[in-house]
C-alpha cells in the first residue's frame, strides 16, 4: 500500500494550483481563490504569503470594490519580475520575446529568416535578440526558463527536431544550440509550433474552457495541436499531430516528406500557389495576394481558393470524426484560407462529418493571433515553475 501524500506534497500542490490560477486568470481576490480552489481562507492566506515571500505574487487592496465592508485582498502575478524567454522558429521568420508571469509580453524582437537556415545558424540570431532584451531586464528579475516553438517533428525527451520538411531540418538540436549561445542556466523546452499554439489558445485564448480542441496550423506544411480531455495529445515520442501527412490522394503529388498525396500538398503553400498559377512565388504574402485576387474577381485565384477550401473541409471532417472536438481553430495560413473559403469548408464539413460529431463543434480563428506560438512557447517554460513554485531560482 502506497503512503498518501505528505503535508509538504499537499502544500506544494496547492501552491502550484494557486499560482497557476493567477498566472492564467490574472489578478484575483483571496475570496475568489477560496471559492475556486476549494480551500479555506486561512490556507489561502498562508499560500499567498509563501508565494509573496519568494517574489512570485504581490497582494494589495482592490482599486474599487463598490461594496461595503473590508475588501478582500487582490493577488497579482509579479509579471515584471518573473519571466521566461520564448522563441518561435517559423518558415520565414524568427521571433523572440520576454514574457512575464501572467502572460504579458514584456519585450520582443522579430527577424527575417532565410529559408534553409539550420539550427546552428538560427541560434546565434535568436541569442542576439535575447542579449538586446537582457539590457532592459530589471536587476532583481528572475528568468525561470525558455520555450521554443518550431515547425517540425520534435522529440519530447530532448527537444531534437527529428524532421522539419518545411525548414529543411533533420535531427537538428535547436535546444542545445540555443543553450550554448545564450549561456543562461535555465531549462529550454522545445515543442512543435501547432502543439504549443494549441496549448496557448487552450490556456488563455479562444479555447479557454474547452477540453477537446483541434488547432490547425499552416505555413508550407500543415500540422495540428490536439487537446483531448483537457490534456495535450502528443503521442508516444512527441510526434503526434502530423495531420498534413494524411494521405488524401492515391499516387498524388509528391510531398516534401517523401511520400505522395499528402493533405498538405493540396492545402499548403505550394499547392495553393501552384493552383493559382503562381508556382514561382512563396511565403505568406504571396498567399495573401492570391486571396486578395480571388476577392477582386480573378477567376483562377477563385478556383484555387475554392479547391483548397474544399480539401481543407474534407480533412477537417475526417479529424472531427476521429477526435470529436468542441472547437477547431485555424491558425497560420490556415486562418487566411478559412476566412477566404469558409463556405466551401463548411459545406464539405457538413456533408462528410458524422452528425453526432458535428452538432457541437465550433470553427474559430485564434484569439492570440500570430502570437499563439510565441505565447505557447512561454507556457512551456512556465510549466516547471507552476508545478513547483518554491523551486524558483
From TrEMBL:
<dbReference type="Pfam" id="PF00480">
    <property type="entry name" value="ROK"/>
</dbReference>
<dbReference type="InterPro" id="IPR000600">
    <property type="entry name" value="ROK"/>
</dbReference>
<protein>
    <submittedName>
        <fullName>Putative NBD/HSP70 family sugar kinase</fullName>
    </submittedName>
</protein>
<dbReference type="InterPro" id="IPR036390">
    <property type="entry name" value="WH_DNA-bd_sf"/>
</dbReference>
<comment type="similarity">
    <text>Belongs to the ROK (NagC/XylR) family.</text>
</comment>
<dbReference type="GO" id="GO:0016301">
    <property type="term" value="F:kinase activity"/>
</dbReference>
<dbReference type="InterPro" id="IPR043129">
    <property type="entry name" value="ATPase_NBD"/>
</dbReference>
<keyword id="KW-0418">Kinase</keyword>
<keyword id="KW-0808">Transferase</keyword>
<dbReference type="InterPro" id="IPR036388">
    <property type="entry name" value="WH-like_DNA-bd_sf"/>
</dbReference>
